[in-house]
Design a protein that fits this description.
single chain, 111 residues, mainly beta, 7-stranded mixed sheet, 4-stranded antiparallel sheet
Length: 111
């Protein structure tokens, strides 16, 4: 059983930064990809960034140059976000293989 728990969301002013974390437990050592999606009210869930077990990263255009995905082992995934805008306001979800999902953490960018 894989369990993912996100943290690090909150309210931040435009131009600010946040670091999201995703703590994973369970049999994930065979994962192919971990990553982050987000869903804003009235919008579809969309990719933010992925990282493969080989360390290859993939970013949505909206995240390139501002967000960095990383992991320190197979247990913790991070998303460092800089220069946040109101358009980044959403619930952020981490996933493993797009099969297992966390409960999400709210990010609100507002002055």
């Amino acid at each position: 059983q894989v369990e993912l728990v996100e943290s690090g969301g909150g309210l931040v002013q435009p131009g600010g930064s946040l670091r999201l974390s995703c703590a994973a437990s369970g049999l994930i050592f065979r994962y192919l990809v971990m990553g982050w999606y987000r869903q804003a009210p009235g919008h579809q869930r969309e990719l933010v960034a992925d990282i493969t077990n080989g360390g290859r990263t993939n970013y949505a255009d909206s995240a390139k140059g501002r967000f960095t995905i990383s992991r320190d082992n197979y247990k913790t995934l991070y998303l460092q976000m800089h220069n946040l805008t109101p358009e980044d306001t959403a619930v952020y979800y981490c996933h493993v293989n797009r099969e297992y999902w966390g409960q999400g953490t709210q990010v609100t960018v507002s002055s």
